[in-house]
Amino acid sequence: MSTAFRSTALRSAVAATATLAAVIGTLALTDASPAGAQQPLAHAKEKGEGDEQGKGQGLPKIQDSFDSLGPEVKAAKLSTGRTAHYIDDGPRDGTPVLYIGGTGTSARAAHMTDFFRTTRENLNLRLISVERNGFGDTEFDKGLGKADFAKDALEVLDRLGVRKVRVIAISGGGPYAAELASLAPGRIDQLHLAAAAAPYGARPAYCALPDAELAKSLKESITDPRKWWAFADDSPVKSIPGFADTAFEEGARTYNQRGQQADPAPQVHEQKLYCLRPGPDLSRLKAPVFLYGGNKDTTVPPATLKTWQGALPGKPVVRTYDDTGHDVQYRHWDQILADLAGYGSRTVVCHKGDTELPPAREAAKLLKNGRATLGSCAWKR
């Protein structure tokens, strides 16, 4: 046996002896402790369990209801014979909000906004989302267009007993929101468009590509949701616990839920629908409109807000932010929720460590003086 080995063995033996002595000492102390002396934790716990039986005191609270794991996707057979998949999340008596997700999203994409679920519930908002053609659970039909989605959404709303609805459309959901606003303007109570693509103005550059070439260009990113849902390193969504993984799960659901194994056909079809011009006539829309844009957005550039303003009647409320790109819908989801709930004349700010909702003019003063920051204080932690 080497000297080093003997030295190690000796140290181990000494440590073991010390540990054993400590255990014996503890046992001796337990047995010899006078009445009222402090006992080791294990013995104290046993005694406490016996003392508290039937009293319900000092024990942890076990919840009486389940926590949400996100919205349940439901199915409804439509009058057309197609099956619509949708979510309906929130209080039944809450203000109905139709959430139209971005391109390449399933009905469950609204779950990606649950980092402010408590605020949504406090504002009594009921979130409904209808899945689009070929994504998630919904079968692909190459003969369907944007108007078909609008009709499906209206039929789902009818089934749920919802007549008037507030609409929030994200990114590639914009053209579908426009179709709905044109088809049934009287049923829209408010229209909110966040980083929303517009079916007006110049067509996207990819519109010139043949379907096969567009499919090839998309295949890699829709096969790997981590690429489809990649955000810049400085994106504020990086501070939301679990956001990235929730986004990746959403991408996997969108392109694989029915075993379609990331078939690019539905995505190609949808993106080619975005190429159609001119967009629908919105002149009959009387509802208030809110536009949200990030000044760093390269996917839906800030100029798109002007395009929407040219197509919309009246004068929409326009909210632009220097701190965001194509993630404005998440970074400022707190303000969008407040607007959806009817607090459009107020601004969400973090002031003295607390999140507040002061009138816009008061908020502007606080922000200008550096005494507050935009949005919930959650963004500061």
Question: What topology does this entry show?
Answer:
Layout: H1 3-32, H2 41-52, E1 74-77, E2 83-89, E3 95-100, H3 117-122, E4 125-130, H4 146-159, E5 165-170, H5 174-183, E6 188-194, H6 211-223, H7 225-228, H8 243-256, H9 265-273, E7 289-294, H10 303-311, E8 317-321, H11 328-331, H12 333-340, E9 349-351, E10 354-356, H13 360-368, E11 372-374
Parallel strand pairs: 3-4, 3-5, 5-6, 6-7, 7-8
Antiparallel strand pairs: 1-2, 2-4, 9-10, 9-11
Helix pairs in contact: 4-5, 6-9
Q: How many strands, what sense, and barrel or not for the largest sheet?
A: 8 strands, mixed
Structural class: alpha/beta
What is the chains' assembly state?
single chain
Taken in chain order, the helices and strands follow as HHEEEHEHEHEHHHHEHEHHEEHE
Summarize the structure.
By secondary structure, this protein is α/β, with parallel strands linked by helices. Helices cover 37% and strands 15% of the residues. An eight-stranded mixed sheet has the order 1-2-4-3-5-6-7-8, with helices on both faces. A three-stranded antiparallel sheet has the order 10-9-11, with helices on one face.
Give your account of this protein's structure.
This protein is an alpha/beta fold and 381 residues long. It contains 13 helices and 11 strands. The chain has an 8-stranded mixed β-sheet with strand order 1-2-4-3-5-6-7-8, with helices on both faces. Strands 10-9-11 form a 3-stranded antiparallel β-sheet, covered by helices on one side. The longest helix has 30 residues, at 3-32. Residues 1-48 have low confidence and may be disordered.
